[in-house]
Design a protein that fits this description.
alpha/beta, 5-stranded mixed β-sheet, Alpha-Beta Plaits, 22 strands, 8-stranded mixed beta barrel
Length: 618
C-alpha cells in the first residue's frame, strides 16, 4: 500500500517537518531532537490498527505504528526507541513522535469518537529531574490538536526493570492524569509488568500477543490469560487482547472476558485513513453466535443493576460531603471521569476522620491545603454488562473488602451490582440452570443441547465435532439389577464424561435416559477422536464394578430381550457416533445432523472400538 498524503509526517506541525514548539523539547523531555533524527522521523508514515469492542465490533481506538519501517532499519517502534535511547535522544524523539501521530490521527474521519494509543517508553520517566507531572507533554499535545478529553492513551511497556522516583509514581494515579489515560503494553511478558500494574493503575491492559498466539491448542495459555483478565478487572482495568488472528482465538478471548481486541482478524495496520472503519460487522457477527446465552445472562444482570448516580472526579469535596449527608443510607458512591468511565468508588468510612473532626470538613475543603476527591478513590472491579454471570461472580469473590462490581457498557458506567444483588443473580442463575438440566445427572438437558447445536450449525467459520453417546446393553442391565443400579450406571458415565471431556473447548449434555451428547469446538479431529475413545474405554472398564462376581467372571448376564426371550448379553459398554464439521463448510440443518447421527449410530455399535466417524465435506 502506498503512502497516504493524509498521514505524512510533519504536515500539521509548526516550523516544518518534524519540528515542535520549544517547550516540548525542554526538561523533563531532554534536549532538542538532532536534525538527522528529525529528518528521518519526517520521512516515515504513521499506520493505524483498530482496537474494537469484542462484543459489538465498534471501533474503540487505534494503536499507532510506523508503516515504512525499512527506512529506519528497525522492525518496530520499540527497537527504534532502543536506538534513540542509545544515542541519548529518546525523550525528544518520543515527544516529536507523539506529536506526529496526533497530527495524523486528527485527519481520521471519526477520530473524535475513538482513542489514540501511543507508545510511552518507561526509560524517559526514571530520572529524578522529572517534574511533578510526567504527563504534561502529553496534555500539551492533546491541547494543541484539540483532542477530546482522555482521547490520548499512553501505552507503557514493562520491557525494562525500572524504579520510578516518587514524583513519577504520584503522577501515575488514575485520577491524576489530566487529559491522558494509561495502558500497559505487552502485559505479561515484561520484567516490570506486575510492579507497573501495582503502581501505575492503568486504565487498560494490553495482553501480549504471546498469550493469544496458538491459544486454541494450549491449555496453559488459556489458564494464564484467564488469570490476567481476572487480575485486570479486579484492579479496575479493561483488557485488550492483542494479535488476534483466528475465529478460534476470538472465541476464547471473548469467553475468558477480554473487553477489546486488535489484530489481523479485525484489520492489519494501515496508513490509509479511508480503509479504517467506525464499526467492524464481522466481529459483531462472531460475537452474536452465543447471543442466546449472552442475552439470558444480560437479562439477569440488568434486572439487578442498581443505578446509583456517580460522582464526577472533578466534584468539590464539600459537595461530596453533602451528597453523603443527603443519602444517609448509602455507604459509597461510584466515581467517574469526565467522559463517564469508572475510576473506582469513594467510601463513607474513608471520610469519617474528617466527618467527626471539629474542623474536618473545613480542612478537607480548603483549596490551598485540602485534599481532593481523587485522594479518596478506591479501586473497584469492573465488568461489561454483557459479561457472563459466572465471570462477574468470580471477580467479586476474588476481591477482598469490595463493596460492589461496577458495570459498564461501551466503557462507560451504567450502574453497579452490590453483594445483595449478586446473591440474587446467583439465585436466578441457579433456577435457570435447574430448569434446563437433567434432574439425575445435573448436566445440561435437551433445551440447552438444542441451542448449542443451533449455534454450531450457524458458526460455519469454526470447526466442530459433535458426538452422540449411547450405552450398549443398558436395558437388560436395568431389568436384571433394577432402576437404582441403572441410575448408578448413568451417573457413572456422566461423571466420566465430565472428568474426561468438559473444558473450555468441549460442551457435554444429557439427552435423556442412557443417551449423552458432546461437542468439541476448534479441536483437531484426531484429538477429539482420541478423547472420545479414552472415555469409551474408561467406562467399559469401570462399569464392571456395577456387576456381581459371576457376571464379571463370565463377562455377560442372562436377561430377557425386547421380545421377552431369555438370552445372554455382554457387560455394559458405550458407543459413540461422531460427526466432524470443518470450518468453511456449507450450511446444514438440525434435521440433517440428526439423520447423519442415526446413520452411523448402528455402525458404532458393531465397530471394534465402538466409535464411528463421518467427516462432512466442504
Amino acid at each position: 500500500m502506498g503512502r497516504s498524503s493524509s498521514s505524512k509526517a510533519g504536515d500539521h506541525m509548526d516550523g516544518g517537518p518534524g519540528s515542535l514548539p520549544p517547550q516540548w523539547n525542554a526538561s523533563p523531555w531532554g534536549a532538542p531532537l538532532p536534525p538527522r533524527w528529525a529528518e528521518m522521523l519526517a520521512g516515515l508514515d504513521v499506520a493505524f490498527q483498530p482496537i474494537v469492542d469484542i462484543r459489538t465490533g465498534n471501533c474503540f481506538g487505534y494503536e499507532t505504528s510506523l508503516y515504512e519501517k525499512n527506512k529506519t532499519g528497525y522492525d518496530d517502534i520499540n527497537t527504534l526507541c532502543d536506538w534513540a535511547h542509545g544515542e541519548g535522544v529518546l525523550p525528544a524523539f518520543l515527544a516529536q513522535l507523539h506529536a506526529k501521530m496526533a497530527s495524523c490521527f486528527v485527519r481520521l474521519p471519526h477520530y473524535r469518537k475513538t482513542r489514540l494509543f501511543v507508545v510511552l517508553d518507561a526509560r524517559v520517566l526514571v530520572k529524578e529531574t522529572v517534574g511533578t507531572n510526567v504527563l504534561e507533554p502529553m496534555t500539551a499535545i492533546a491541547q494543541r490538536f484539540s483532542l477530546p478529553e482522555k482521547c490520548l492513551t499512553l501505552a507503557l511497556s514493562g520491557r525494562f526493570p525500572v524504579n520510578f522516583p516518587p514524583s513519577v509514581l504520584e503522577s501515575f494515579g488514575r485520577t491524576q492524569r489530566g487529559k491522558a489515560q494509561l495502558a500497559m503494553d505487552g502485559f505479561g511478558v515484561g520484567c516490570s509488568c506486575l510492579p507497573l500494574l501495582h503502581s501505575a493503575e492503568p486504565d487498560y491492559l494490553k495482553v501480549a500477543k504471546f498469550f493469544v498466539d496458538g491459544i486454541e491448542k494450549d491449555l496453559k495459555k488459556k489458564i494464564l490469560l484467564r488469570h490476567i483478565v481476572n487480575t485486570g478487572h479486579q484492579m479496575g482495568s479493561l483488557v485488550i487482547a492483542d494479535g488476534v488472528q483466528t475465529e478460534g482465538q476470538f472465541s476464547i478471548c471473548k469467553d475468558l472476558g477480554c473487553d477489546y481486541l486488535q489484530g489481523p482478524l479485525v484489520q492489519s495496520p494501515t496508513p490509509d485513513p479511508d480503509a479504517l472503519l467506525a464499526d467492524y460487522p464481522e466481529i459483531e457477527r462472531l460475537s452474536n453466535h452465543d447471543r442466546r446465552q449472552q442475552a439470558g445472562d444480560r437479562k439477569v444482570i440488568k434486572g439487578q443493576i442498581e443505578t446509583l448516580e456517580p460522582i464526577p472526579i472533578s466534584t468539590d469535596m464539600t459537595d461530596v460531603f453533602d451528597k453523603f449527608r443527603a443519602n444517609k443510607h448509602i455507604d459509597f458512591f461510584p466515581v467517574v471521569s469526565k467522559e463517564g468511565s469508572p475510576l473506582g468508588i469513594v467510601h463513607e468510612r474513608d471520610l469519617k476522620e474528617y466527618t467527626y473532626s471539629r474542623y474536618g470538613k473545613e480542612l478537607i475543603s480548603n483549596k490551598t491545603c485540602g485534599r481532593r476527591l481523587r485522594d479518596f478513590v478506591r479501586p473497584c472491579p469492573v465488568a461489561d454488562i454483557n459479561t457472563k454471570t459466572e465471570k462477574i461472580l468470580e471477580l467479586f469473590a476474588h476481591e477482598e473488602n469490595t463493596s460492589c462490581v461496577l458495570i459498564v457498557k461501551g466503557g462507560r458506567y451504567v450502574g453497579f451490582l452490590s453483594a445483595q444483588a449478586l446473591l440474587r443473580v446467583i439465585n436466578e442463575k441457579s433456577l435457570a440452570i435447574a430448569r434446563d438440566q437433567n434432574p439425575l445427572t445435573k448436566l445440561p438437558g435437551n433445551n440447552v443441547i438444542t441451542e448449542y447445536l443451533a449455534n454450531v450449525l450457524r458458526d460455519t467459520g469454526t470447526s466442530y465435532a459433535v458426538v452422540y453417546f449411547d450405552l450398549d446393553n443398558f436395558k437388560p442391565f436395568n431389568d436384571k439389577y433394577g432402576f437404582r443400579q441403572g441410575d448408578r450406571a448413568i451417573l457413572l458415565f456422566a461423571e466420566i464424561l465430565t472428568q474426561e471431556l468438559q473444558s473450555g473447548t468441549c460442551f457435554i449434555g444429557h439427552v435423556g435416559g442412557d443417551d449423552f451428547f458432546a461437542g468439541f469446538k476448534g479441536v483437531p479431529r484426531e484429538a477429539a477422536a482420541a478423547a472420545v475413545l479414552h472415555t469409551v474405554d474408561r467406562f467399559s472398564e469401570e462399569a464392571r464394578s456395577l456387576y456381581d462376581d459371576e457376571a464379571r467372571k463370565h463377562g455377560m448376564i442372562a436377561a430377557k430381550d425386547r421380545h421377552g426371550v431369555m438370552r445372554e448379553f455382554p457387560l455394559l459398554t458405550v458407543s459413540a457416533a461422531m460427526i466432524v464439521l470443518p470450518d468453511g463448510r456449507s450450511p446444514m440443518t438440525s434435521d440433517e445432523i440428526s439423520s447423519r447421527i442415526a446413520e452411523i449410530k448402528k455402525v458404532s455399535k458393531s465397530a471394534a472400538d465402538h466409535l464411528a466417524i463421518i467427516d462432512i465435506s466442504l
